[in-house]
Amino acid sequence: MSLFITDECINCDVCEPECPNGAITQGEEIYVIDPALCTECVGHFDTPQCVEVCPVDCIPKDPDNEETHDQLYKKYQILMAV
């Protein structure tokens, strides 16, 4: 699964620079995660870095974008090949 940011986001700006894939950007009201770029940090780190630094715990797994660890790793490989 990719992750997503809930409306509990306080726009603290700490998650965006932590994303190694550039999947997090400022949306109209809160930060958003592009599921096409989110690998939950698979291939980079053992845990999602945005979740680690989020002070309000507003970055859960996205039930609309379910992916296995293998799928996330394949996405990582494709993103790093570009």
From TrEMBL:
- A GO molecular function held by the record: 4 iron, 4 sulfur cluster binding
Q: Which domain of life is it from?
A: Bacteria
**GO cellular component annotations of the record:** cytoplasm
Q: Which keywords does this chain's UniProt record carry?
A: 4Fe-4S, Electron transport, Iron, Iron-sulfur, Metal-binding, Repeat, Transport
Q: Where is the 4Fe-4S ferredoxin-type domain?
A: 1-29, 31-64
What SUPFAM superfamilies is this protein classified in? 4Fe-4S ferredoxins
Give the matching InterPro entries: 4Fe4S_Fe-S-bd (IPR017896), 4Fe4S_Fe_S_CS (IPR017900), PSI_iron-sulfur_center (IPR050157), YfhL-like (IPR047927)
Record NCBIfam families: di_4Fe-4S_YfhL (NF033683)
Name by which UniProt lists this protein = 4Fe-4S ferredoxin, iron-sulfur binding protein
Q: Which organism is it from?
A: Methylophaga frappieri (strain ATCC BAA-2434 / DSM 25690 / JAM7)
